[in-house]
Write the structure tokens for this entry.
Amino acid sequence: GAGVSQTPSNKVTEKGKYVELRCDPISGHTALYWYRQSLGQGPEFLIYFQGTGAADDSGLPNDRFFAVRPEGSVSTLKIQRTERGDSAVYLCASSLTGAGAGYEQYFGPGTRLTVT
Amino acid sequence: QQQVKQSPQSLIVQKGGISIINCAYENTAFDYFPWYQQFPGKGPALLIAIRPDVSEKKEGRFTISFNKSAKQFSLHIMDSQPGDSATYFCAANYGQNFVFGPGTRLSVLP
């Protein structure tokens, strides 16, 4: 079956512009996560959705970052007034259920964002 | 307290050798410890995971050793192969909170 897909695979934007990154989770997965991975680092948690609601957005670095998941499936990460420091790979992951520990997260290939 | 430390940063091993990557954590609330493998241009993929009620878990050539009192865990790759060349991340989890280590770039020479 299809895995987690993310579009676009690469995005180059100018400083100050607005960008949207899309994630299509595995069908039926209720839990969805966004991570940011800087060069040479591990993924850094941004936000977690259970269904349509953001259950934990404590990892969003500031109010320029926002994410939605209006129908409990596809999610969009939105970044306003982009800065060069936002350049990173943005990873999306989904899981069958977010309840309890030990469930597997399936990661997408990521969107590489470059802010010039 | 949320940090997961990982070493070495990079590792070069001959084909057939043993690769060992170490991780340490502080937060005793963590109750699930997965290892992920990541190839260039791909997202991380779960390799093997352990809960703190066991000291070792083996799956094929991959073994996790877990020391709860020391708050340390390690990944051993036996009979390392060139196809194992990738970046490996340890992680620690409780609830929905996953904290990743900075990664180890493994190169297995043919």
Remarks:
- Chain A is about 0% helix and 45% strand.
- Residues 18 and 80 of chain A are 5 Å apart (CA to CA).
